[in-house]
Amino acid sequence: MLNEEMVGLGKVRSEIREIFEYGNKRKQEIGAENVFDFSIGNPSVPAPVSVNEAIRDIVDNTDSVMLHGYTSAQGDFSVRKTIAENINSKFNTEVNADSIYMTVGAAASLTITLKAIMNPGEECIVFTPFFPEYGVFIKSSGANLKVVKGLDKTFQIDIDAFEKAISEKTKAVIINSPNNPSGVVYTEETIIKLCDIMRTKEKEFGHEIYLISDEPYRELVYDDTFVPYLINYYDNTFVCYSYSKALSLPGERIGYIVVSNKMKNERDAYAAVCGAGRVLGYVCAPSLFQRVVARCVNDTADISIYKKNRDVLFNGLTELGFECVYPDGAFYLFVKALEEDAHAFCEKAKEQELLLVPADSFGTPGYVRVSYCVQTETIEKSLAAFKKLAESYK
Ligand code: PLP
Questions:
Q1: pLDDT of residue 15
Q2: For residues 240 and 259, what is the distance between their CA atoms, to the nearest angstrom?
Q3: What's residue 325's pLDDT?
Q4: Shortest-distance atom of ligand 1 to CA 109
Q5: Quick check: CB of 216 below 6 Å from ligand 1?
Q6: What is the bridge-based pairing of β-strands 100-103 and 255-259?
């Protein structure tokens, strides 16, 4: 007898993947240039040149047996040291190599961290809109998901709702800023209030409440928007980072976890991360790419292209009368559907060859996500299709 829950999870493709697959089929039928595929968050900007240069140089100049061999379970020491020093110089922190655990991207960073923290019956709070996989990750750690609705229109955290929702069972809180799917960056004021409440509740309940910062989009911010580094705001913080979007390397599966050096029982917390990595089989992240990212710690894919896409799409859609959340980061535009049922709206959008994602699974019915990590030309051409879509509701 198989684990029926896993069979179920394996059989049901995520809604985003369904739309993406539909798009691939449609592109074969009518030509890729005639399909406006805004479904998936696959970076459209190439990795910086420094990535390929680093790969060549490392492959040519490193002993091959060593390069392709295992590193330490938690990652190569000199890689972790380079990353720690880089974090400290950017954010004025004091993390060290032994606070860092190399992973295969943010998904692994999150599942390891949750496994390290959560016990059965405990709760992990997330704020809408949220990355749907959190539900699966939290469940697999044995804990329960608790959803707190974000503020209407701004999609910042609703601090009052959070204060009401946090309970004795709360062990962790996940935040994701810049946010998928809203593109919103939580303000410093919001972060300070959130952390104040968490500290007060830790005292009241007599146990730690951990903050998990899911940061695959940290580098994708526009117009000098400030993204607070959470280790500087809250001691019991885990940072779950990924190079998937920052360096346009989602297929290479590389990221890391930072355990704040200020965390209570920090050595035990790091041991729990190592233990969880061991249990889940996430040891020794890809050796070549550990070394590549260490060479590219100061590089980022060319985000000016995403900024341009954001401007063209946001301005174009608001001019057409769509209600959009202004995105300061990531590469998603969050748009209010023109009818209550976002699924029905997305089906109607398909008639114009527009592939949008209904945001029900992000906890925000009535909205759709438009991924603008596409060619700028696709966005420009799509505006006529959006216009027809808007007109079909008049
Ligand atoms: N968290 C969020 C908010 C994401 O959007 C994604 C991927 O899109 C992930 C985590 C997983 O990232 P990775 O591909 O690095 O595992």
A1: 85
A2: 9
A3: 96
A4: 16
A5: yes
A6: antiparallel
What distance in angstroms lies between residue 366's CA and the mean position of ligand 1's atoms? 23
Is 261 part of a structural domain of the chain? yes
What percent of the chain has pLDDT above 90? 96
From the CA of 244, give the closest atom in ligand 1. Answer: 15
Same domain, 283 and 171: yes
Tell me the best of 138, 174, 180, 331 to mutate to test the pocket of ligand 1, counting ligand atoms within 8 Å of each CB and taking the most: 180
Structural domain including 173 reads 67-295
Number of domains in the chain: 2
Strands 332-336 and 237-242: unpaired
Low-confidence ranges of the chain (pLDDT < 50): none
pLDDT at 12: 83
Name the H helices within the chain: 4-11, 15-30, 49-61, 64-67, 77-91, 106-117, 133-140, 159-165, 188-205, 266-280, 287-295, 304-319, 342-350, 376-391
Residue nearest to atom 8 of ligand 1 (CA): 41
Q: State how far the Cα of 131 lies from the Cα of 134, in Å rounded to an integer.
A: 6
DSSP-derived secondary structure for 355-392: E-EEGGGGT-TTEEEEE--S-HHHHHHHHHHHHHHHHT
Q: Which amino acid is at 303?
A: I
pLDDT of residue 13: 77
Tell me which residue of 198, 223, 51 sits closest to 124, measured CA to CA: 198
Examine residue 62 and state whether it is found in any structural domain, yes or no: no
Residue 90 lies in a domain: yes
pLDDT at residue 55, rounded to an integer = 98
Residues 96 and 204 in one domain: yes
Q: Ligand 1 in contact with 330 (CB < 6 A)? A: no
3-state helix, strand, coil in the chain (%, to 5): 45, 15, 40
- CA 155, chain centre distance (Å): 16
Residue 26 CB contacts under 8 Å (≥ 6 apart), including other chains? 35, 353, 355
Q: Pick the last residue of a domain from 269, 295, 321.
A: 295
* pTM of this structure: 0.97
pLDDT of residue 17: 86
